[in-house]
Design brief:
Layout: E1 13-17, H1 25-29, E2 47-48, E3 71-75, E4 78-83, H2 102-112, E5 116-119, E6 140-145, H3 150-164, E7 170-174, E8 188-193, H4 198-206, E9 210-213, E10 219-226, E11 229-231, E12 246-252, E13 259-261, E14 269-271
Parallel strand pairs: 1-2, 5-6, 6-7
Antiparallel strand pairs: 1-8, 3-4, 4-5, 8-9, 10-11, 10-12, 13-14
């Protein structure tokens, strides 16, 4: 889920992405200039800031800032993000799990735009928050939502189980900021995309070529190696049953960090 451009893919670049937010977006879209999230550190990365409202950004976005248009589809039976909608498009939320095929139809429509369907805070308890539609139709899970809580640990456990069962699905971290006191971009996604274009960023997110970080000062490099082959985030490393795998992780900006490697046969293998 984490990594840097490999030597054979030097054209790829990292791009910061705040993917699920509310506070300040309505004011900005209504006419105030859009402000970039604080860069926080020497390793500045282009910011890709989506919205989750139904109003236009036109006239408010700097030319060097890519805006992906998502909508948080807030059904009474759980929320999901339609990411990458064209301007002016929106997704209805008036349906329930008992309405067979309705969610499928909406997800197919989002895919038709080249967008993604993301389960928002799928394991958060509470009326309307816990996603009751299941996770078979989504392209990604929001495994980290706002400041870290036990809900996020439950999201990670569900994601790990899906991966072990052979369901290839991306994991994302989003700030879901609702008020001025919420920190936009805590967490956010760092995307290994060929360019900061809409198509390349959405493709990288779909393939899982990203990692979530608490703030812009945290960077993670991840590489897995076996019998001369290497793989990074969102890539596969072909293995036989008893092949040994060397995993290299380099973390900066997170002092005293503990790395936990989730593996196929066991829940986790912690390391320093």
């Amino acid at each position: 889920m984490v990594g840097r451009p490999r030597p054979d893919r030097e054209h790829a670049r990292r791009h910061g992405l705040a993917d699920h937010r509310h506070a300040g977006v309505r004011r900005a879209a209504a006419g105030a200039p859009v402000r970039r999230p604080a860069r926080g550190g020497a390793r500045a990365r282009p910011r890709l800031v989506p919205r989750s409202t139904g109003v236009s950004w036109r006239g408010n976005v700097p030319t060097d800032l890519l805006v992906l248009n998502p909508e948080e589809v807030t059904t009474r039976y759980g929320h999901w993000l339609a990411v990458g909608l064209p301007q002016g498009e929106w997704v209805d939320w008036h349906y329930a799990p008992a309405d067979g095929g309705v969610l499928d139809r909406h997800v197919r429509r989002v895919h038709g735009f080249g967008g993604l369907a993301v389960a928002a805070h799928p394991m958060t308890p509470g009326t309307g928050a816990l996603l009751e539609f299941g996770l078979d139709r989504v392209d990604a899970l929001e495994v980290w939502n706002g400041p870290w809580t036990l809900d996020d640990a439950a999201n990670i456990a569900v994601w790990h189980t899906m991966l072990r069962l052979g369901k290839r699905i991306a994991g994302l971290g989003n700030s879901d900021a609702h008020s001025p006191s919420d920190v936009v971009g805590q967490p956010h996604n760092v995307v290994n995309a060929a360019s900061p274009s809409r198509a390349d960023v959405l493709d990288a997110l779909r393939r899982g070529r990203s990692y979530a970080a608490e703030h812009a000062g945290v960077t993670v490099d991840f590489t897995a190696r076996a019998h001369g082959a290497t793989a990074g985030p969102g890539e596969e490393l072909p293995l036989s049953l008893f092949d040994a795998v060397d995993v290299t992780v380099d973390v900066s900006g997170a002092p005293d960090a503990v790395i936990t490697l989730h593996t196929e046969p066991s829940s986790s293998a912690p390391s320093a």
